[in-house]
Design brief:
The complex is a heterodimer.
Chain A lengths: L1 E4 L2 E4 L4 E7 L14 H13 L4 E5 L11 H18 L4 E5 L3 H9 L4 E4 L8 H8 L2 E5 L18 H18 L7 E4 L8 H9 L1 H5 L6 E3 L4 H7 L7 H14 L3 E4 L2 H15 L13
Parallel strand pairs in A: 3-4, 3-10, 4-5, 5-6, 6-7, 7-8, 9-10
Antiparallel strand pairs in A: 1-2
Helix pairs in contact in A: 2-3, 3-4, 6-8, 9-10
Chain B lengths: L4 E6 L17 H15 L4 E7 L11 H10 L6 E5 L5 H17 L2 E6 L17 H15 L10 H6 L5 H10 L4 E8 L6 E8 L4
Parallel strand pairs in B: 1-4, 2-3, 2-4
Antiparallel strand pairs in B: 1-6, 5-6
The chains are: A alpha/beta, B alpha/beta.
């Protein structure tokens, strides 16, 4: 298996860090830390120096809140993407949006990947990725309406639902012209799922990997981690990293995260243990 | 007139074999010098003989570490013969092996790659912790190599060498059995991990 993002090509042993860069005043974790453009640009510089492979830029928080129309979303992200592209010509840039008009605008200024985090609510999104040769992340939200919370959602078999829906979305994207090697799938922990569902998806992540599509996981500081340990936002890093390690062992390929340095270490540690990457330094017992 | 034989001396550290390598080379300078010395030694030779010691307490069925180091450094050129002298061999046994080596080397224009290093107890973090007797022991063999007065290697005491985890003592004494004197063209040494490594290029007269 191989997949491509921007000009880079990866194989099934890749474990990539996708750093979250919010252009929002109200996201749950950073609470507007990178709302100012200079702060967001500095965040990009920092995550690149910390070893991020790509950045995921978003202009609307996932949780319910004030409505942000397409014009405002574009004001938040398009110019910013253009600046990031100018400053980091080789950086893989993803944009988190469900709107095809926003996707078109950011692809025009250099975005490489559209992260369709709401599961295909805009059916034209794949055609934009196809038009620009961009990659596309297909996500499973269980039919959840954009920016709403799950309420009494149940599945006969959540993983079967995730797999069937993601494979259908991925094949549809390819049929609409997205390069097969530029389609990723994301089970979307917490989206359209209670914590038991997200934990089961994590437990059976190998079933997603077995589809042959590259798997992106977005685990960082989410509620299912918080509920697993009864920890509030701000105290979920260890739980996130444990989940990251297990997901990496199961074979996921891209990790959307707030904390880059720690995630990089966890992923590299898994890669070294699995034999996919030599140790950085090997002297003990050899001198 | 006989041609001078070329001898390369390199350490027997497993850091020089590829199978345990990490992503960052901890010994780039040593590796480059060892490769260059071995390449120099074999560039016009008809045969290559590797002289090294057996492993101290082998718990594996692989070739001795020193042989694998030599093969890694020789690359595509496989050695024609490997003399893996017992790690604890007596000085007389080493001398006898050296005498045979000399005769064959002269007759068949042979390069010799000696794989061995010094004491492994030179610092508190060294493999064998610190034993200050290392310094005089290492100085003695390094001085003999650097000066070309190889007969100085014959007096290295095997018991003390074993205590100090000197892996090169026996192969050095094989070399001394093959040649009493040599011209040292280059010698470099370093002990980054508490083990004394040396890389040397020696020319030995074909006549005795």
């Amino acid at each position: 298996m191989r997949f491509r993002l921007g000009r880079c090509e990866f194989n099934e042993r890749a474990r990539l860090v996708m750093a979250i860069v919010n252009r929002t005043p109200d996201s749950f974790y950073d609470r507007g830390l990178t709302w100012r453009e200079d702060a967001a640009l500095e965040r990009v510089r920092q995550v690149v120096s910390e070893g991020a492979d790509l950045v995921d830029i978003g202009g609307i928080k996932a949780a319910p809140g004030a409505e942000i129309d397409a014009a405002e979303e574009m004001r938040r992200v398009v110019g910013f993407v253009e600046q990031v592209r100018t400053e980091h010509p080789d950086l893989i840039i993803s944009v988190d949006t469900w709107r095809s008009e926003v996707a078109r605008a950011v692809c025009a200024v250099g975005a490489d990947l559209i992260n369709d985090a709401w599961g295909g609510v805009d059916p034209e999104l794949p055609s934009v990725a196809a038009e620009f040769g961009a990659a596309l992340v297909c996500t499973h939200t269980g039919g959840q309406i954009v920016r709403t919370r799950p309420h009494r959602v149940e599945y006969d078999d959540v993983v079967a639902d995730v797999v069937a829906d993601l494979v259908r979305q991925a094949e549809r994207a390819v049929a609409m012209g997205v390069e097969r090697e530029r389609v990723l799938i994301d089970p979307a922990h917490d989206f359209g799922k209670n914590s038991q569902h997200s934990l089961e998806v994590t437990r059976r992540l190998d079933e997603l990997v077995a589809t042959g599509w590259p798997v992106l996981v977005s685990l960082s500081n989410k509620d299912f981690v918080g509920e697993a340990l009864d920890r509030p936002v701000g105290e979920r890093l260890i739980g996130t990293l444990a989940t990251t390690a297990l997901s990496a062992w199961a074979g996921a390929h891209v990790y959307r995260v707030h904390e880059v340095t720690q995630t990089r270490d966890v992923l590299d540690m898994v890669s070294v243990i699995s034999g996919d990457l030599p140790p950085r330094r090997a002297v003990r017992g050899l001198a | 007139m006989s041609a001078a034989l070329r001898v390369a001396l390199v350490p027997s550290t497993l850091l020089l074999v590829p199978e345990y390598a990490g992503r960052v080379d901890p010994i780039p300078d040593l590796r480059a010098r060892a490769h260059a010395a071995v390449a120099w030694s074999v560039e016009s030779a008809a045969r290559v003989v590797v002289v090294t010691a057996t492993d101290r307490d082998p718990r594996h069925s692989k070739a001795p570490a020193g042989e694998r180091v030599a093969r890694a450094l020789l690359g595509d050129r496989a050695p024609d013969e490997v003399v893996a002298v017992e790690w604890a061999a007596s000085p007389q046994r080493c001398r006898d092996l050296g005498a045979r080596l000399h005769a064959e080397a002269v007759a068949r224009h042979t390069a010799v790659v000696v794989v061995g290093d010094g004491c492994a107890r030179r610092t508190e973090k060294a493999p064998g912790h610190l034993d200050e007797r290392c310094f005089s022991y290492d100085e003695a063999w390094l001085r003999a190599v650097a000066s070309g007065a190889l007969d100085g290697l014959r007096t290295l005491e095997p018991g003390l060498g074993a205590d100090l985890l000197c892996h090169g003592r026996a192969p050095f004494q094989v070399l001394a059995g093959a040649a009493e004197t040599a011209v040292c063209e280059e010698v470099w040494s370093s002990d980054p991990f508490g083990v004394l490594y040396a890389v040397a290029r020696l020319r030995v007269d074909g006549e005795r």
